[in-house]
Amino acid sequence: MIAKSKSKKEDSNGMKDRLLGKVAQTLEGYLDFYDKITQDTEPGWPTWSQSMRMKALMDNRRLLVADDTGVNGKTFTAVGSKLALDKYEGVRHPTLVISPNSGLLNAWSPNEINRYASIMNMPDQKTATIEQYRDLSKITPETDFAVLNWEKLSVREDDARWGKLENAIDTLNPAITVLDECHSAKGVNSLRGKTMQRITQRINGDRLLLLSATPIPNKYRDLGMIFHMLDPVKYPNPTMFTHTPPEVMKELLDRQSWFRLTRHDLKEEIGLPDFYEKEIPVNLSDEEAEIYFKGWADCVTLGQGLTELRKTLYNPALSKYGARFKGRSSKLEAIAEYVDQQVAAGEKVIIKTNYVTNVLDDIVEAVGHDPLVVVGDTAREDRNSLYWQFKNNPKKPVLIVSSVGEESVDLTTGDTPLTLVPYEPEINPREFNQFSGRGYRRHQRAPVTHATFVTQSETLNQMMIGYLQNLAEEHGIKVPKKFKPRTIDVDMLGMRRAKDSIVNKIYGGDKITKKEESVYDVGEVDRAVTHLEGLVKPSTFKNMQPFELSSLIQTRWRNLGEEQFESLVSSKGWKKWRNLYEDGWNGSASQATNVLLGSLVDKVADSLEYEPVIVSVGDGRAYFSRASGRGSVGIDIDKKWLEQGKRDCEKKKIPYEFIHASATDTTLPENFADVLVNAYSIFYLGQDEERNEVESAVVESNRILKDGGRLMLALPCSLDDKIIGRFGSNLEEYGFKEATYLSPKQTKNNGMKNGVHILSYQKVDDVSEPLGHDLSFYLNREVFVG
């Protein structure tokens, strides 16, 4: 026994010695590299931690750098890695960079790359900036850096644009690929995700550097894409990681393929100042509380989205219940007072607003101090000048930004203290880290404060509790025991903190529960569903017709966009809504609309003298064929709904086929259809400053229509005639000519008491590229949609 015990102890000591030896060898390698690389660079560059990442990329070939925004210079690390490889291996390493739009003209601009080259004592680099697909011709075999945005990857494999991109990559023949904000690769089933998988296979064996302060994607299961890009041999199938085991993360961290340092980790190394996070309560007036309460009651009883609540806290006059409200909101008054206080103390202040229209002018007037303003409409060439003034001009202490001020911008103020004020709490860690990282980064020497304003009201609390008690008494609703009256500010701040703790668990190698995964995955749509279904369910209101109730619920989905619809379709709330919709569909406005469209198709069929090929986009449960009696090919993102529709059509002996696809990527061949019908679904696509889904759907419609084919659209009567006129006029630029227009007045019938806009166009020309014309139903992302 003594001999065995002694043997085990010797084995344990031997293992410890081997591990310590391996650690010492690794550390010695990093120290040698740091000494070597800093011999002829500017003092302080690179830092010790930056040099570790450079060495790890050289040795391990594939690496993810997840350091907090601004604190460790991820862009410099990437550029420096390329330059170090050039120097030590004696050959050029052409580098492909994929970054957010803002990065093209800021972090990855030729001037910035050459500044880093100068720091590294290396010659200027030849950089090709790819803003348009035609710019791909700038890439030559002599190019050092080819920089393009993530949007260029949102193309199908059979798209001519992918061919151009593929040829450009072949010309560059990158030895290194850098994915800046790598979480933008998105899920495995998105167009961008599929393109990224193709690129990953093409560069397999070459060096790959992933950069993101928040690399865990919006959906926890999409971590599989990150793992796949890091090691496509070991993790060949991104979809395998629907529930990622904790040992995968630990393994990547242990073998130096995943680096992460927080601002707290690096505070001493690079001399970061103190960072303070403050929560400042704001008491609503009784008038504001009443306006907010009415909007909240609509959300509870009718299933409406939460935008009404958010805009009420920006400015109660924007609420449909706030027409009589005069003056400023309590939150804006509190922010303005706080800004005065900070400026008087010699600080600079950045205010971030998620909304601009009907909001920005009030903020500018309230905060005073002649603020600088950078929003989506600010010309790109003007933004850097305004940022420079804020950083360097003592007479310009206040900067107001929209979401454009979140990424790839250095807003440090040096020796001047800086305060960051989000108008509403950030809902997730990414928003918080990106905004905080604008000012809390290298070169900031004075303290930084992040101040969150959170509204509250005892009057509102009493209204909410009284209302729910009344519902319980009159309708038998069970009020959740854990319900606490609160504003959406409290919910948003709580959601961010909950996600923060989940992220820490993931990095700690701890397995997260399914409940935690669902919390982490919560987005704009699910947040509304989660908030509302905890109070009352649509089935509670049995006195309302099912279709009427479903229509009220779906009003929150206008301009939602395909990506969020995919999340919605997989949610519990969607199944309930789908059943409500189907239960009341017969005799509804939707059925009447499709009957009307069917009559227009009949006329087209008569003129063709043969049975036309019809495609119905956003078809749901085969609603066009069921209403018109005509065979068609249905397109929808809900496969189960399509399958139910096919069974319905088989019972009625209506020929029907379907494709599980989207409006922007139907997967149908060119020149396939004689008629394409889109009843309302185009209205739910995302079209604004950040998204161009309506335009993509129009270009896709042109592609699959035969010459002379018809595009038929049904749009809600609620759309203003001016919007319809602008939309129709711009639509003609995409190879279409107006054939028929029917107004809501012309289409009123027993099934549609308010009528519908019917637009029918004939294809007269092929248009395969986006043209950038305004096809939105809203001005931009920053306009409130109810």
- Beta-sheet strand percentage? 5-15%
Tell me the number of structural domains: 3
- Please give the radius of gyration in angstroms: 29 Å
Largest sheet: 7 strands, parallel
The best one-word shape is: globular
Please state the second-level CATH architecture of the largest domain.
3-Layer(aba) Sandwich
In what order do the strands lie side by side in the largest sheet?
A: 3-4-2-5-6-1-7
CATH superfamily of the largest domain: P-loop containing nucleotide triphosphate hydrolases
CATH topology of the largest domain: Rossmann fold
CATH class of the largest domain: Alpha Beta
Give the total of beta strands.
Answer: 20
Q: Considering DSSP H and I runs of 4 or more, what fraction of the residues is helical? A: 40-55%
Q: What is the average per-residue confidence, as pLDDT, rounded to a whole number?
A: 85
Distance between the amino and carboxyl termini: 77 Å
Low-confidence stretches: 525-541, 779-786
Query: Count the helices. How many?
Result: 29
